[in-house]
Amino acid sequence: MTDDRRLGILLLSTTAPERLPGLARLCEGLGFDEIWLAEDYFFYGGFTGVAQALTATERIRVGLGIMSCVARHPAAAAMEIASLDRAFPGRFVPGIGHGVPSWVRQMGLTPRSPMRALEEAVTGIRAVLTGREPYTAEGEYFTFGDVALVHPPLTDVPLYLGVIGEKGCELAGRIADGNVLSVLAPTEYVTWARSLGLQGMSQAGRTGSFSVPTYVLTAVDNDRDRARAAVKQSLAFYLDAVGPTPLTGSIGINDAVSALIAAGGYDALLEGMPEDWIDVLAISGTPDEAAARIEQYWAAGADCVILSPQPADSLETQLKLIAAEVLPRLAR
């Protein structure tokens, strides 16, 4: 492993919480560098899941990508982050974003300005984590009155955003240490998002590195057609769920995505999706093909490629195959 060529595994929110410790141990034992968990409402709790994964392992880093900035007060989020860092120094990477709008609406937490709420939250979390004096601020969304942690973190905890638009990617560079990129991110988008993050850092007068861990739908099989069929179903599901975004816009397919959704949603996407979409939006095929595609993501700027194995019901099988057949093919 090197700092800019890491390989991680996403444990989807559909995973039952009681399975997380065993899966985390398996990922570490197979040689992966990171584990990432989602906080999708209302599946497993993000901080609880991270704590389970950290407790079950010894060296592997565990990321939370992402928690909604409005689901907890930033001071409470900072307290949780600090507690995990003290228990497992340097192994926890928290990611913060807007949250899926439909879930945020269910909780009655939709902000008038999502970007402003995110900036206030992340700025407040960092201030509470790093401050030597109690933090006081009166924002549009969050208030801090002499907040100080009794048990501050032991390390300099990196804070990542999880955003996709141009303004969000720039904001990540201004206030965060990285940006967790969503599934459906082609390599072209990775390069674009990283450049915007670096631009934001420069504008804010910040120095250092900027991380872009990237989720990628993945299916590996010695039977190439079987792997591509598995990942194609997942691509159709996600494209139907999120529609055209800057992710797919980076390769000029937004109009085609919209047309297929209008023609029948998931079924139309599954039937009408061009084969080259599988090549650019996922990692699929034989171990040789998967290794080559991972290398392309690293070259595009994704310092950690976070595999989301498909289909999810064969997770352990996929993990073992990737570890045995793909990892040895990678130049790390």
Short description:
With 332 residues, the protein is an alpha/beta fold. Helix content is 48%, strand content 16%. The protein is built from 13 helices and eleven strands.
How would you characterize the overall build of this protein?
This is LLM class flavin-dependent oxidoreductase. InterPro entries: F420-G6PD/mer, Luciferase-like_dom, Luciferase-like_sf. Keywords: Oxidoreductase. It comes from Pseudonocardia acidicola. This protein is α/β, with parallel strands linked by helices and 332 residues long. It has two domains: 6-222 and 285-329, Luciferase-like domain (TIM Barrel); 223-284, no CATH class. It is built from 13 helices and eleven strands. A nine-stranded parallel β-sheet has the order 8-7-4-3-2-1-11-9-10. The chain has a two-stranded antiparallel ribbon with strand order 5-6. Helix 3 (74-87) packs across helix 5 and helix 8 (224-242) packs across helix 10 (254-272). The longest helix is centred in the C-terminal third of the chain and has 19 residues, at 224-242. The protein starts with 5 loop residues before the first strand and ends in a 6-residue tail after the last helix. The mean pLDDT is 96.
Q: Provide the CATH architecture of the largest domain.
A: Alpha-Beta Barrel
The run of helices and strands is: EHEHEHEHHEEEHEHEHHHHEHEH
CATH topology of the largest domain: TIM Barrel
> Helical segment tally?
13
The coarse silhouette is: globular
What is the domain tally?
Answer: 2
